[in-house]
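Colleagues,

For the teaching module next term, I've prepared a clean inverse folding example: a structure given as tokens, and then the sequence designed for it. I'd like students to try predicting residues themselves before seeing the answer, so please don't circulate the second half yet.
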């Protein structure tokens, strides 16, 4: 008798995967194992995944490059949340006959977190909250956003929604990216400005680009040096779009005033990393999409995709 099909659910940090949707279409035909920890070491990851036929991955928490996939001969399906996953080697998966599925999602939670970070950084909320907890009172002076310049780097799915909220706050909204046209900016309720002006005039610069060859390191030492000493940088997109070493130096030197960050070059952010404790950084652990509605969509669509695959391809050859 063939062993039962096995499904691994990776990086369920909050231990909520099995509560977010009805897994019975899958559990009736396969064994499901949930892992709430993260493995960064490839050898350890391969050893963990070797017994599984299906792997369910949450966004890009665990990359699945060719160097991992070719060492998993039993793996036949990857279910990934979101409509794309740049950390999966799709060419390698196709060559190895591994089916990859994706899900729907919601960008509202990332838009909302972007503004949570902007407001927290502008009003010094983390330090003020800590002061109250410690018995102190009013330790700093926040900044008002009305009339300030909001620079939106990228106008894809999220940038225009962030721009509209900035306009509602009474901010002067400008936008730039490599291929952006003035018409793109107008459609989003922003003004297109040249690259140099974009970085030098933004009081709050918020990043909303996909990570790719053109965007990797796009905000580097020169761009940070061009920004106002009073400026705030917000990144809820992908860590490597901003040169992390250059950002840390700019924050330490006072070249910019502060940052609100949800994404990093290495995730989880290593223990002892300076961005964890810098006083002018509001750091959150990549929770832009970690909210009730997107999670329900992710897990519901993922279970449906796995169940459909089990129905058509699940029998062992």
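(Answer key — instructors only)
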């Amino acid at each position: 008798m063939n062993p039962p099909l096995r499904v691994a659910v990776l990086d369920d940090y909050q231990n909520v995967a099995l509560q977010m949707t009805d897994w019975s279409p899958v559990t009736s035909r396969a064994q499901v194992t949930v892992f709430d920890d993260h493995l960064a070491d490839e050898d350890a990851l391969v050893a963990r995944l070797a017994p599984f036929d299906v792997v369910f991955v949450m966004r890009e928490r665990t990359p699945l490059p060719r160097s991992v996939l070719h060492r998993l001969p039993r793996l036949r399906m990857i279910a990934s949340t979101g409509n794309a996953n740049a950390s999966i080697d799709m060419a390698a998966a196709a060559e190895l006959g591994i089916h990859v599925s994706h899900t729907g999602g919601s960008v509202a939670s990332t838009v909302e977190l972007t503004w949570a970070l902007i407001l927290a950084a502008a009003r010094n909320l983390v330090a003020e909250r800590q002061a109250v907890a410690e018995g102190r009172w009013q330790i700093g002076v926040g900044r008002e956003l009305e009339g300030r310049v909001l620079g939106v780097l990228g106008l894809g799915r999220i940038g225009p929604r962030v721009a509209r909220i900035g306009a509602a706050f009474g901010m002067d909204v400008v936008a730039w990216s490599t291929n952006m046209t003035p018409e793109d900016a107008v459609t989003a309720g922003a003004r297109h400005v040249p690259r140099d002006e974009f970085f030098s005039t933004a009081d709050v610069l918020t990043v909303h680009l996909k990570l790719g060859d053109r965007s990797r390191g796009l905000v580097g030492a020169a761009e940070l040096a061009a920004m106002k000493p009073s400026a705030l940088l917000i990144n809820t997109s992908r860590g490597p779009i901003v040169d992390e070493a250059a950002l840390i130096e700019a924050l330490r030197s006072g070249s910019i005033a502060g940052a609100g960050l949800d994404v990093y070059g290495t995730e989880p952010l290593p223990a002892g990393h300076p961005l964890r404790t810098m006083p002018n950084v509001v750091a959150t652990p990549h929770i832009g999409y970690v909210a009730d509605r997107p999670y329900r969509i992710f897990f519901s669509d993922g279970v449906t995709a796995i169940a459909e695959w089990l129905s058509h391809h699940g029998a062992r050859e």
